[in-house]
Each structure stands twice: as structure tokens, then as C-alpha cells.
Amino acid sequence: MNYFDLPKIDLHCHLDGSLRPQTVIDLAAEQKIELPSQDPAVIKEMMVAPETCPNLQEYLDRFALPIQVMQTKESLERISFELFEDAAKENVKYLEVRFGPQLHTQQGLTYAEIIDSVVKGMKRAEALYDIHGNYILSLVKLLPIDSVNDIIDAGVPFVGKGVVAFDLAGAELDNFAHDYVEYTQYAREQGYRITIHAGEQGCGQNVYDAIELLGAERIGHGVAIKDHAEAYQRVKEDVVGLEACPSSNVQTKAIPELKAHPLNDFHKDGLAVTINTDNRTVSNTTMTDEVTKVMEQFELTAEDYKQIYTASVEQAFASDDVKKHLMQFV
């Protein structure tokens, strides 16, 4: 099977974890930011997490350098365009990118300017390539909570025009969902779909709470439901999409090794599991790499892939027209 040529859908990809090393060098020069090297290989090494990190924080540290150069409208638009371009060139037909607007205000950009910039980059790529996309606004849980509604409000003019959903990301404490009920409810009222990072480093109860309390329609990662019967059943009954990120889960020790990843068991049991990159640069991966690893590790067939692709279309926060377009490829 030619994995490169397969049509692919990525529903869980972070903008700040998916920069080209040369772009970091170019933008640092433009913005007078001093780098330890001008060698793309050295810069890439600073941005790629080890294959197995001692903890999630070691993985998250790899975002520091990219964030530095993502503080202008021009840099955000360029990085967004390049991510969609890179995905399109490996036959990704639809891509949902998430990012935290709070991380890009260091030079005074407003939330509206930040969101507008990334959407512009995406639309430029859509005009040039056979790819469709949308943005997801992520609240980073360690950052101030009092600006959450401001971010939601800033994104409202873009809902259905490049922005589709609201997400909670960052370090995962047990029972975190209780602190965010009013914010996700407000986001839903403003027309956002909801996907929540849960059950990655935390417990399966977090997944149950994300669905029950926050109205999550999809779960980022969700591997911990394998040890939590109630959460597992809720995901299955409600057809909640699971955004599996195999390489990332091994790196962050969410699972010990790829062969232990529960996504194949989830798939066999009829759960709506999807395959995603998480962070193309930090995890040093592509959708082709992720699909190849999963297909070969679990000896999946073309029919299995068709089912996973179809689940991805069904779980996408895309318009009906885009979904119809995506189903032409299976």
C-alpha cells in the first residue's frame, strides 16, 4: 500500500508545534531575535522532542523557540500557510489546526488580529492546493482564565469562516473540567464546536467529565479510557471522536510503546478513532508517517483505513459541502 498517496485527514495538529526550522531562522532574523545557530539542523534539534521524554513537560519545552517568532501578523500568516502547504503536499485533504491566541500577544497583537492572520494563511493555501481546513481556538490551561471569553468573542466573526471549535489544552490535572464549565458553555452558545484534550496524561474520569460537563464532541488523545469503563462506554455510546496521536503518545509516555497503543482495540470495537500528527515538528512526523506506523504495527487492511478515514470525515468540524467533497476520495 502506498501510504503517501492515500487521502488523509488530520484533526489534531498544533500550529506552534509544526514550524519549518528554516522559517524559524528567517523570522528570527527579521525580528532581530538571536538564535544559537543559523543551521536548520541545529534549530530542528531544538524543536524536536526526544523519542521518549521523561515527562510531558520535556515535550512542551520544545514549543518555546517557535513561540518567540510567532508574535507578528506576518509571521503567523506565513507559518499557517506553510503548515497547510506541507500537509497538502503529502495528500492531506483536510486539516484542523489548533492554537492558543494567548501565546501570541507579546508584541501587542489583539486576539482578533492573531486569529485573522492564521485564517488568512490557511485560506491562501486552500486557494493554491487541494486541501480544506479550519482553525480551533485552544485555551492553554496554565494561562490566565479571565481572558477566555475575550478569546471566544474575538473568534466569533470567524466562526464558520475558518474557525470552528474551542479546545482546552496544556497540562492535565485530575478533575480539571469542573473549572471550565461556564467557558465551554459560552463557547457553545457562540456557535463553537467543542474538542477537549483529556485522558492523555490524566485519568479516564477526565474524558467522562469533558463529555458530561463540557459537552465535548471529540477528545484529544483519550487513551486513558482503556482503564475507565464508564468513560469508555460514554465515548462509544455518544460516538465521541478520539483524536489519536500515536508518535506523540509514545514520546510523552502516555503509552510505553506503539504496540501498546489502544487505538487498534478502539477501532476494532467500533469507536470513532482517528489518526493525527499532534505536532509535525516537535514529534518529527507527518500524516504519512503516522498512518504508516499504525497500518504496519497493527497489520490493518485497506478496509480498516477506509473506516478510519470515514470516521475522520464524520468527526470533522467541516461543512456538509466539504464533507461531501472528502468522501469522494474513499
UniProtKB/TrEMBL annotation:
Annotated EC: 3.5.4.4
Pfam families linked: A_deaminase
UniProt binding sites for Zn(2+): H12, H14, H197, D278
Keyword Zinc annotated: yes
Sites annotated Important for catalytic activity: H221
GO biological process assignments: adenosine catabolic process; hypoxanthine salvage; inosine biosynthetic process; nucleotide metabolic process; purine ribonucleoside monophosphate biosynthetic process
Binding sites annotated in the UniProt record for substrate: H14, D16, G170
UniProt-listed InterPro entries: A_deaminase (IPR028893), A_deaminase_dom (IPR001365), Ado/ade_deaminase (IPR006330), Metal_Hydrolase (IPR032466)
Comment on bound cofactor: Binds 1 zinc ion per subunit.
Domain Adenosine deaminase as annotated: residue spans: 7-328
GO MF assignments: 2'-deoxyadenosine deaminase activity; adenosine deaminase activity; zinc ion binding
Annotated catalytic residues: E200 (proton donor)
Catalytic activity of the protein: 2'-deoxyadenosine + H2O + H(+) = 2'-deoxyinosine + NH4(+); adenosine + H2O + H(+) = inosine + NH4(+)
Cofactor: Zn(2+)
Family (UniProt): Belongs to the metallo-dependent hydrolases superfamily. Adenosine and AMP deaminases family. Adenosine deaminase subfamily.
PANTHER family: ADENOSINE DEAMINASE
Name by which UniProt lists this protein: Adenosine deaminase
Species annotation: Photobacterium sp. (strain ATCC 43367)
Organism phylogeny: Bacteria, Pseudomonadati, Pseudomonadota, Gammaproteobacteria, Vibrionales
